From TrEMBL:
<dbReference type="GO" id="GO:0042147">
    <property type="term" value="P:retrograde transport, endosome to Golgi"/>
</dbReference>
<dbReference type="InterPro" id="IPR010989">
    <property type="entry name" value="SNARE"/>
</dbReference>
<dbReference type="GO" id="GO:0031201">
    <property type="term" value="C:SNARE complex"/>
</dbReference>
<feature type="domain" description="Vesicle transport v-SNARE N-terminal">
    <location>
        <begin position="1"/>
        <end position="91"/>
    </location>
</feature>
<comment type="similarity">
    <text>Belongs to the VTI1 family.</text>
</comment>
<dbReference type="InterPro" id="IPR038407">
    <property type="entry name" value="v-SNARE_N_sf"/>
</dbReference>
<dbReference type="GO" id="GO:0000149">
    <property type="term" value="F:SNARE binding"/>
</dbReference>
<dbReference type="GO" id="GO:0005829">
    <property type="term" value="C:cytosol"/>
</dbReference>
<keyword id="KW-1133">Transmembrane helix</keyword>
<feature type="compositionally biased region" description="Basic and acidic residues">
    <location>
        <begin position="114"/>
        <end position="124"/>
    </location>
</feature>
<feature type="region of interest" description="Disordered">
    <location>
        <begin position="103"/>
        <end position="124"/>
    </location>
</feature>
<dbReference type="GO" id="GO:0006886">
    <property type="term" value="P:intracellular protein transport"/>
</dbReference>
<dbReference type="GO" id="GO:0031902">
    <property type="term" value="C:late endosome membrane"/>
</dbReference>
<keyword id="KW-0175">Coiled coil</keyword>
<keyword id="KW-0472">Membrane</keyword>
<dbReference type="GO" id="GO:0005789">
    <property type="term" value="C:endoplasmic reticulum membrane"/>
</dbReference>
<dbReference type="InterPro" id="IPR007705">
    <property type="entry name" value="Vesicle_trsprt_v-SNARE_N"/>
</dbReference>
Amino acid sequence: MSSDFESYEQDFAVLTAEVTGRIAKVPKLLGDEKKQMVASVEKQLEEARELLEQMELEVREIPPQSRGMYSSRMRSYKQEMGKLEADFKRSRIAYSDEVRNELLGDDGNSSENQRAHLLDNTERLERSSRRLEAGYQIAVET
């Protein structure tokens, strides 16, 4: 039984190493390449989850006297898996122009739009100021 567990451990180690390498590449990619890499990493993470499930099943079949050692290994593998998933989540959004544009509503010519919007607001403010001054003049005259 422990040989199956060790085999799963080796597979998990290889898979997590591959995932870690691919996660590091994700922020540097753009467009379709990034989507393909993200899909590939998601698939590998799912495989790693399945390996963890298989290892858990193996641990349950191990005699109680030696189960403690394997249980502690399982905890560390689960923590590693959680860390990988968190790193993957961060790498998907890190340095992502697409996400930035989506969040900010940036459409490429935002500085021109912002400038036009600023000019419109400035004109509106000036008109309001002139109306207030005119109203004040009328109040003073009466």
